[in-house]
Each structure stands twice: as structure tokens, then as C-alpha cells.
Design a protein that fits this description.
Length: 353
């Protein structure tokens, strides 16, 4: 019989609430404490989710010997220091994406993980969608052959998150490039088998965010935030050491034909192509001169993916299994995203370390 793992959540905003059904559903975890620098927010969260131990100081959670797992849900720039402190205090850590907003901070987190022997996982919830798990299994069985090119994008139309944790570099380190680029890029690399990136040519600019009126009817509403100092658009061409290539596009604000969000990934291999999230495989039979498409028939997801990732994490803690989303793979992702920013500044291709 497994023990019940005690969880402490840090940062009780929008995303923390999506993790709670997972902690409650796993059968082997229970959220016993929560921390937020905003006292009213943590008290409201405690009342809503029946969490008893409330604090505005994360050190209270680290000092608590009953807590086994820390769930880091703060804005990006606080992920690494809080996760490292938690692991040093003997806690396993699941941390929201991006694991940290630059490769150096992720390397520090990996070093802390290895020093302490704790489990560290990046909360990349798109990996836990049924369409993702089915496509990953299909690709791993060799269906596509060698994947030599990918096209991935996550494009929002008039949907910049108008909150300090996203639009101010001092809290987030960047805009959509690392906020949503991290989602589609993580998924793409995972499907491709996490090939080592070689170089990046990228742009990351704010093209629409400072236009009058642009913030009037989007997420959070209100006037143009004076503090908006991140990009609203990024694009890149990536080369991998195995010869594969990738074209990536992300934006929060783009005059694009979508209601809300357009998130797609096309993979092209030597045996077949594929589309996510449609779950389709594209082939040619040269002998019969026939092109045909196969669709994966997906069963309904049992649990919403933000919740499922928490269940998978605590199951890995309990069984001693490896991290369901290893930090090394997040380091690859962040090296590319960081390369986009470096390429924007340099105005040329960046060869990655
Ligand atoms: N996986 C996803 O789909 C997804 C979606 C949204 C956000 N996120 C990630 O989750 C994180 C939080 O995003 P959110 O939407 O919940 O933001 P949010 O603004 O809704 O909430 C963040 C909370 O953290 C608190 N906070 C800030 N600094 C803190 C600190 N040092 N210690 C304790 N609390 C602190 C804030 O007071 C706020 O309550 C970000 O890293 C973001 O990238 C992931």
C-alpha cells in the first residue's frame, strides 16, 4: 500500500487550480499547504480547495518535514530558485513550464536534482493529451521513418495574457517565444526523439503590442500596459545535429485566421508524414501510385492533461520511475528558445553550445 504524498503548492494563480484535480484524483497525494506572495489570493485558494497550511513565505513549506512534493506554479523567473531550494530541502519538484527562462538556470536545477537525488519534472501538459500519447507511440514504432523536417506553430489572435507575470521581462524573461513556444517546441522535439539542436536563426519582436487599442478586448482587458517589454511574435529556423530541420512560429497577437489559438505540428519522415493534433498519418504507395491518409481513432481522455501530469508525477515518485518529463529535454527546448533571442540581437544564425 503506497503512502499518501503531501504536496505544497507555490503560486496559486490560474495554473495551480488546474493541477488540483490531479492531486485529488491520484489516490496517493494530498495538497496540505499553499504559498503565494499575495495573502488574499492564498486565503481564497485555501478556502476553495480546502488546503489548511497557508503562508506567504515559501520557506515555511521547505521547512515542513511532512511535505514530500513541491508544485511550483509562480511566474517563470521564480521557478529555478524555488525549485532548487525545495530540492535542497529534500522535496521532489514538479515545476511549471518553462522549467526556467534560460539554459543556465536549467543547468543549475539539474545540478541540484543530481546533488539531492530528488525527482524533477517539467509540467508540459500537452504531452499528456490522448492525441499526443497516441501519436508518440505511433512515431516510436517507426511509422514515419527518419523525421527530416518539422513545421510547428502556436499562433494566437488578440490573446496576449495581460498579467505582469507574462508581459514584464522582470517576471517572465520573455513573451510568447518562451510562454507558448515552449509548449509546441517541447512536443515537437519529443515526437522527433529529442535530436540535439545545432543552430538557430530567429526573430523575436513586438510588432502589434504597442498599437493603440490592441489590449482593449483581449485576455485581462484594459489599456496598453506600460510595462509590456517582451516580444509578441517569434519565428525560427532550427538545424539539428542529425541533419533534421524545423520551422517554428509563435505569437500572442497576429492577424491570423483563427478564433483564439491555432496550434499545429507537421512532421515529415522518409516513410510518412503526420499532423498533430488531428492525429493523421500521410503515406504514398509508389507501387500502386496511391496517396492515402490514416487517422488515429482517439479514445476520450480520462483526465484533463494538467491534472494527469500531476498524477503521472506522483506515480513516478512512488514507484521510483524516471521523471515523466526530464529536465534534460527542457534544457534542449530552452537552448533553442534562448537561441532565438540571441539570434534576434545578433541578426544572424547562432550555433548552440
Ligand atoms: N501549462 C500551461 O498550460 C500553463 C498555462 C498558464 C501558465 N503556465 C505557467 O504557470 C506559471 C504561472 O502562470 P499563471 O497563469 O498561474 O499566473 P498567474 O499570474 O495567474 O499566477 C501566478 C501566481 O504566483 C504568485 N507569485 C508570484 N511570485 C511569487 C513568488 N515568488 N512566490 C509565491 N508566489 C508568487 C502571484 O501572486 C500569483 O498568484 C507561469 O510560469 C506560466 O508560464 C502554464
Amino acid at each position: 500500500m503506497s503512502k499518501t504524498y503531501k504536496v505544497g503548492v507555490i503560486g496559486v494563480g490560474g495554473i495551480a487550480k488546474t493541477h488540483m484535480p490531479g492531486w485529488n484524483a491520484s489516490g496517493i497525494s494530498e495538497v496540505v499547504a499553499a504559498c503565494d506572495i499575495d495573502r488574499a489570493a492564498v486565503e481564497k485558494f485555501g478556502a476553495e480547495w480546502k488546503v489548511p497550511g497557508l503562508t506567504t513565505d515559501a520557506a515555511d513549506l521547505f521547512r515542513n518535514p511532512d511535505i514530500d512534493i513541491i508544485d511550483v506554479c509562480t511566474p517563470n523567473n521564480y521557478h529555478a530558485p524555488l525549485s532548487i531550494a525545495a530540492m535542497e530541502a529534500g522535496k521532489h519538484v514538479i515545476c511549471e513550464k518553462p522549467l526556467a527562462p534560460n539554459p543556465t538556470a536549467i543547468r543549475d536545477m539539474i545540478a541540484a536534482r543530481d546533488r539531492t537525488g530528488k525527482l524533477l519534472m517539467t509540467a508540459q501538459h500537452f504531452r499528456f493529451r490522448g492525441a499526443s500519447k497516441a501519436m508518440k507511440a505511433e512515431i516510436d514504432s517507426g511509422t514515419l521513418g527518419d523525421i527530416y523536417h518539422a513545421r510547428s506553430w502556436m499562433l494566437r489572435r488578440a490573446a496576449a495574457p495581460n498579467r505582469p507575470g507574462f508581459i514584464m521581462k522582470k517576471h517572465s524573461s520573455g513573451g510568447p517565444c518562451i510562454d507558448i513556444g515552449v509548449h509546441i517546441l517541447d512536443l515537437t522535439l519529443w515526437f522527433m526523439g529529442n535530436p540535439e539542436p545545432h543552430s538557430v536563426t530567429g526573430v523575436a519582436r513586438a510588432e502589434l503590442a504597442h498599437q493603440p487599442g490592441v489590449f482593449t478586448n483581449i485576455m485581462g482587458g484594459g489599456p496598453i500596459p506600460q510595462e509590456f517589454d517582451v516580444e509578441d511574435f517569434a519565428a525560427a529556423f532550427v538545424r539539428f545535429k542529425n541533419g533534421a530541420t524545423l520551422v517554428l512560429e509563435v505569437s500572442w497577437l497576429l492577424h491570423h485566421d483563427t478564433q483564439g489559438e491555432d496550434m499545429q505540428m507537421w512532421l515529415y519522415g522518409t516513410q510518412a508524414g503526420s499532423h498533430w493534433p488531428k492525429g493523421e498519418i500521410y503515406r504514398s504507395n509508389y507501387a500502386t501510385r496511391q496517396q492515402y491518409n490514416c487517422a488515429l481513432k482517439l479514445m476520450a481522455d480520462t483526465l484533463e492533461p494538467h491534472a494527469l501530469e500531476c498524477v503521472e508525477f506522483v506515480k513516478a515518485v512512488d514507484s521510483g520511475a524516471p521523471s515523466p518529463v526530464p529536465a534534460e529535454q527542457s534544457l534542449q527546448v530552452m537552448s533553442i528558445l534562448d537561441g532565438i533571442y540571441r539570434s534576434q540581437v545578433a541578426g544572424k544564425e547562432i550555433v548552440l553550445d
